[in-house]
Amino acid sequence: MATEIQFTGITELLAALERLAPDLAAAAVTQEKAIATQTVEAIRAGYPLVTGTLRNSVQIQKQGSTTPVRPFTQIAVTAPYATLVEFGMARTAPRPVFIPAIRRAREALVKDVVEKIRQQGLTVTGA
Amino acid sequence: MSDAGLVDAVVMEVLANDATLTALCPDGVFWGRAPAGATRFVITALFDHTERPALARDTLYETTVYLVKAVILDSSKTPSRTAAARIHTLLHGVDLDLTAAGYVAMDCRRMERVAYPEIDPANAATWHHSGGQYALVSYPV
C-alpha cells in the first residue's frame, strides 16, 4: 500500500513569500535612507572639528543593485586620514566613530526588517 | 561586585604578561596612547561597548570591542605583523579569566583585522600598525 503525504497551502505560501520580498525591499529602502541619514549625522558629530574636511567627507553613496530585493546604501568617509583618526596614530589615541556608528546602523536596519517580517505574520528566529 | 573597567585591565594584563609579545613590543602595553619616546608598543583601546539588558536592572551580557594593535617604528611591516599574530594567539578564542573583575567571559574573538602604515610627519619614518578589533562577550556575576 502506497503511503501518500499531502501538503496543502504550499502554493499560497510561495505566493505570499513572493509578495513579501518586493514589499520588504520597498520598506527597507525607506528605512535604509533614514538610518543612513541619522548615521551620517552621528559620524559627523563624532569627528573632531579642525578644518571641517573630515566631517564634510562623510557621504551617503547609493549603490546599484542587480535585483530589486537587494537595495543597499554605502556610507563613505573620503578624507584620506580617516583611518588614522579612527584607529589612532603613533602619538594620538584612537577615536572610534565610524565603525561603532556603522555597526549600530546595521543592527537597527536588521531589527527593523525583522519587525516588518513579523508584521506579515511570519516567525523570525535567531535575530 | 562587577567592574567593567577591571575587564579592560584583565585584557591588558594578558597582553603585558606574555613574554613573547613583550619581546616583540618591549616598550609595553598601553591604554589609548603610548608615552613619548616609545617606538615598539601595544595599544589597547575601548572601541565599542553594548549591553543587553535583562529583567529588572540586570545585564544579560555585555559586548566590549577592543582595538588591540602593535605599533612599531620600522621600515618593514613584518615586526608589527608578527606582534599582531601573537596578539591574536593571546585573545582569539581564548577563555579569559575575568574573576577579578566580577565577570564571566563567554567569548572573545577578532571581528576585523587592522593594518595600516603611518608616515611620521616629523621625519617621514614609517610606523606600522597591526592588530584587530576584538569582541569580548561577558556577563557580570
* Alpha-beta content class of chain A: mainly alpha
Strand order of the largest sheet of chain A: 1-2
Low-confidence stretches of chain A: none
Quickly count the domains of chain B.
Answer: 1
Largest interface: A-B, 14 and 21 residues
Largest sheet of chain B: 5 strands, mixed
The CA-CA distance between the termini of chain B, in Å, is 7 Å
Averaged pLDDT of chain A: 84
- The general outline of chain B is elongated
Q: Provide the β-strand percentage band of chain B.
A: over 45%
Say what oligomer this is: heterodimer
Q: H/E element string of chain A? A: HHEEHH
Helix content of chain A: 40-55%
Q: Structural class of the secondary structure composition of chain B?
A: alpha+beta
How widely separated are the two ends of chain A?
44 Å
CATH topology of chain B: STM4215-like
Average pLDDT over all residues of chain B: 95
Number of helices of chain A: 4
Count of individual beta strands of chain B? 5
Question: What is the count of structural domains of chain A?
Answer: 1
